[in-house]
Write a structure and sequence with these properties.
By secondary structure, the protein is α+β, with helices and mostly antiparallel strands. The chain is built from 6 helices and 3 strands, in the order E-H-E-H-H-H-H-E-H. It has a 3-stranded antiparallel β-sheet. Helix 4 packs antiparallel against helix 5. The N and C termini lie far apart (80 Å).
């Protein structure tokens, strides 16, 4: 069985329908997307800091390989091993990124597939719908024209006095 980290955005109220709808399940383990697409997967997931680390590590590995005069095949093997290492830790790095962005860690869900893990996770939680305050009843105004307020002298517009006198 696989396990997933469950996160909810910090901007939502815990244990509400809105928070449950926006919950993110991050699978623990190897990420095939990170292995096949590498830096694009990191950028797609908005893992900017991890992407910068990945870029720096790739440059350092390339410089070390050139300094040690590795042939192209050995450089490819080193790059492949680095990609495997990143893919093994990609989802843990995604969880770390979500924690850094102040997402709430809600627990670990277990299941054979994501659907089963979601069902198990939400079956153990109590989700409430917050009561929205009822708006006060709208005041109905009597139909027709109203009297001008005292001090206005029946003037419409931005001038304070009739005949355009300045205050």
């Amino acid at each position: 069985m696989a396990s997933w980290y469950v996160f909810e955005p910090a901007a939502t109220v815990p244990d509400t329908v809105d928070a449950a709808k926006k919950a993110v399940f991050v699978k623990d383990g190897f990420s095939i997307g990170a292995f096949l697409f590498g830096p694009l997967w990191l950028l797609w997931r908005r893992m900017w800091l991890v992407f910068l680390f990945w870029l720096l590590a790739e440059i350092v590995l390339l410089l070390i390989a050139r300094a040690l005069h590795f042939d192209e095949r050995l450089q490819g093997i080193v790059s492949l091993l680095f990609s495997i290492c990143v893919s093994l830790e990609a989802n843990a790095l995604r969880a770390w990124t979500l924690r850094r962005k102040s997402w709430r860690f809600m627990g670990i869900a277990v299941g054979h597939k994501l659907d089963e893990a979601e069902q198990r996770h939400f079956a153990t939680r109590t989700i409430i719908e917050p009561q929205r305050p009822t708006p006060p009843p709208a005041r109905s105004l009597p139909p027709g024209p109203t009297r001008p307020h005292e001090g206005h002298g029946g003037v419409l517009g931005v001038f304070p006095e009739p005949q355009g006198m300045r205050p």
